[in-house]
Amino acid sequence: MATIGGNIFAHHPYGDFAVALLALGARVVLAGQGAAKPLEDVLRERGRSSTSPIIAAIEVPRPRDPRAFAFAKVSRIKPKGVSVMSIAAHLPREGGRIRGARIAFGAMGPTPLRATAAERVLEGQSLDAATIARAAQLACDGLDPPTDALASAWYRREVAGTHLKRLLEKMERG
Ligand SMILES: Cc1cc2nc3c(=O)[nH]c(=O)nc-3n(C[C@H](O)[C@H](O)[C@H](O)COP(=O)(O)OP(=O)(O)OC[C@H]3O[C@@H](n4cnc5c(N)ncnc54)[C@H](O)[C@@H]3O)c2cc1C
Fold first, then answer.
1. Could you read off the pLDDT of 59-87 as tens digits, one per residue?
2. Are 147 and 106 in contact (CB under 8 A)?
3. Distance (Å) from CA 20 to ligand 1 centroid
4. Ligand 1 environment, Cβ below 6 A
5. How do the domains of the chain map onto residue ranges?
6. Cis, bond preceding 66 (omega within 30 deg of 0)
7. What dotted CATH number matches 66-173?
């Protein structure tokens, strides 16, 4: 069916949409569990739990400035399509400074994951060549890329910073 709920739990190299939702700070309502929870908590708990609650609804905050959000899907020429990795960044700015940076990677761990080290480098800063370079250097900190038929863990680590840099440079240009 290719539902959004299914995409959240699809294993790499699928699950691109879940990466965008994670960067946007989506919250998830689980059937029979009342209040919405952050998507990242639901992803983490699913890995630990033997039960699999059903996603009944997803709440996505609308970015105030659509230019503060960007997404990149990195795929090979052959086979074209599925992701070597996907990256989403939401970098809202106030007075030129980033407030509430969120960067998420897909196919860089068992579930979509936030690149918290890169987020910390960007938080409170302006998006310029120096901060982009520092964020790119730390892109893989805390991530645990898999080896699969598309790419090895080593390759994913090698190229993640370059792809994050390109995405952030595109956002810098506006
Ligand atoms: C050839 C091919 C290429 C594709 N390429 C891509 C791609 O490049 N990028 C991409 O993002 N997607 C891609 N997809 C789509 C991706 O596979 C689906 O989005 C994903 O499998 C979800 O499909 P589904 O909703 O049918 O869920 P399923 O595949 O049926 O389920 C996926 C997992 O989620 C669980 N699940 C399903 N619904 C819920 C729910 N509501 N609550 C809790 N758990 C749930 C299931 O139990 C299962 O563990 C591709 C699919 C195909 C067939």
1. 999 999 999 999 999 999 887 889 999 99
2. no
3. 15
4. 1-3, 5-7, 9-10, 14-17, 52, 54-55, 81-83
5. 4-59, 66-173
6. no
7. 3.30.390.50
